[in-house]
Amino acid sequence: MDNSRWQALYDRPTDRIIGRLKAGTDLFTGMKEICNHFGVRGGQFQCMGSLKQATYVQVQRGEKQGTIVYSPKRQTTSPVELISGLGFIGIDMETNDLDIHFHGSFVDCDQHFSGGHFLEGENEIAITVEFILYPLKEAIPKRRKDDQFGVLIFHFDE
Predict the structure, then answer these.
(1) DSSP code for 111
(2) Where are the domains of the chain?
């Protein structure tokens, strides 16, 4: 399948989807479109490529001893090479929509290497991002607020 935002092929023997996201497409939006096209409601994907910028948060020490929190939103000031990215796909329990949890490492145009938890809608493809998607058939991760930490996480229960 080829459209203005992505190209993808389904490999029947391995039950995998391979493809690329095209320039100008948001990383999360593009992956969700591919999942919807192929009927994927849960799974995992790996990717690499280039982004116009990386928008993310990173873990940092909390005010209370032994706790962690996320940093304020960070955004690079140049395009980046996405060295490695890994995402989980599941369902948001409040909306029943697809949801993605994605972490990536990257290097910017000044050769600064970093990474973190990427934010939806703010990571536009510069040239291409190539991916392989591993769909799940029955076990669908469900994302909801965690009682202990108060953040959205995937849960793996019935």
Answers:
(1) -
(2) 14-152
